[in-house]
């Protein structure tokens, strides 16, 4: 492999990491605040993809704009799901079987709604960008990857800002670290949970729209991405955003560079192997490594 | 006597099937310091959590400012200016001291005044001001307690409940923390203080309840209880 190939792979890994991070962040925030592993995440990724497809085909709305438009719609849908279903399961500081079953069931329902409406054939979103590529010296990048990377990273930056600087964001971080203290400080936990569930689903919908510009999809879409999100979150230590970004980067690098040594058919096994490795070697995730060096109680 | 600021009546509290507080009656008069003493596992923390609303009452009533708050969620109680500074401080370790304090003013009514109140807290606890950008998890035990007290004060409570504020602190720091509690009381905040160490609590409070295995065993004016034979032997380390 020469240097240009290497740089090419590195750039595509970085671009991939951006979308991976945006894809997993919805799951991270929901887990952090509610300790619920949102297995239905994949279902909302899939719905996000079809939402953007429909907007594109019926109203000729650019899929990038469609992805941005997905956020508020899925946010409201998420809040509705919380209000009707999620709030009924007992609050816990640990993931509970009840919450896993509920989210898994919801995923199945969403999937079947998908089959009912769109059938089982593969769809994809084609625009003028889809087949074009950019050349920067020796590096060649598919344009659409860059176009998708930018909003992904912007949305993460925006989320980070909200988490640092707003009352809502600080309360989210507080609930992640100590829910009991949050209640004592007067944070209305159920309202916060509803809003956060909405934000998490909003991110899932938007990320689904972004992914739909890169991959073809069917109502079964999201399987592989659910597993990847899971790996990223576990690598990231489950409730840290920088950790999740680092996890996304690690996964993207490993996946991208593995094509040098592994046949494409083994690709799906990579995420799974990383998951097992992370669970065995890094119970605190990447953030856990740094935490040990500081005196974080 | 005027209507008490806080009145707890016939309160039962339980963790799932295990009942740990039985028929507790308690009153806190406005402008006073009331203490709740009792040994390990007597039920002080449980009682305070029920009053704060983080643990539901099994039976009984909690009346605060003349209003029945028994089933109100904790955030509404904070909104009514009832705050608990919990046992073990319960800070957010990976947030800065300033963020910890600011979140004490989360209820909407308080947000406008948060900056000003923050300044007052830093005046009261200069050490927190010096460490404002530091993660709360990196503070010493005494500083963590100050931060927890500061966070509670950000909500401008009328009634401040303190659960073992001296827990795990060196004797010198215990004095310092109680000095601050005295300052807060002098500003007119009503205080309900839970402690294992009866010496401090009795010196410090106007009225005292003694809890034993989930029930009020004894109550009275603190100066009287200080001379009580049973209290001296059981809680003040006096020889029998
Ligand atoms: N989360 C819990 N689940 C079950 N039982 C509990 C729980 N917390 C406390 N208990 C039990 O309730 C009883 C009262 O405990 P509590 O913490 O209220 O006592 P305390 O007076 O605050 O004691 P200490 O002085 O040690 O803080 C104890 O027997 C304790 O074991
Ligand atoms: Mg206690």
Shape of chain B: globular
Percent of residues in beta strands of chain A? under 5%
Helix residue percentage of chain B: 25-40%
Distance between the termini of chain A: 46 Å
Instruction: List segments of chain A where confidence is low: pLDDT < 50 over at least 5 consecutive residues.
Output: 292-297
Explained architecture:
The complex is a heterodimer of chains A (297) and B (240). Chain A has 297 residues and is an all-alpha fold. Chain A has one domain (3-220). Chain A is 72% helix and 3% strand. Chain A contains 12 helices and 2 strands; from the N terminus they run ααααββαααααααα. Chain A has helices at 3-34, 41-59, 63-84, 97-118, 143-165, 167-177, 179-184, 189-211, 223-235, 241-258, 267-281, 285-293, and strands at residues 133-136, 139-142. A two-stranded antiparallel sheet of chain A has the order 1-2. Chain B is of the alpha/beta class and 240 residues long. Chain B has 2 domains: 1-81 and 158-240, Rossmann fold, CATH 3.40.50; 91-156, no CATH class. In chain B, 37% of the residues lie in helices and 26% in strands. Chain B is built from 11 helices and 10 strands. Chain B has helices at 44-52, 74-79, 97-103, 108-111, 114-124, 126-130, 141-153, 171-186, 198-204, 222-225, 229-235, and strands spanning 6-15, 18-28, 33-37, 59-64, 67-68, 82-85, 159-163, 190-195, 207-212, 215-221. In chain B, the strands form 2 sheets. A 6-stranded mixed beta sheet of chain B has the order 6-7-8-3-9-10, with helices on both faces. In chain B, strands 2-1-4-5 form a 4-stranded antiparallel beta sheet, covered by helices on one side. In chain B, a hairpin with a 2-residue loop joins β9 (207-212) and β10. In chain B, α3 (97-103) packs parallel to α7 (141-153). The model of chain B has no long low-confidence stretch (mean pLDDT 90). Bound molecules: adenosine-5'-triphosphate (ATP) and magnesium ion. Adenosine-5'-triphosphate (ATP) is lined by residues 15, 18, 20, 38, 40-46, 87, 164, 196 of chain B.
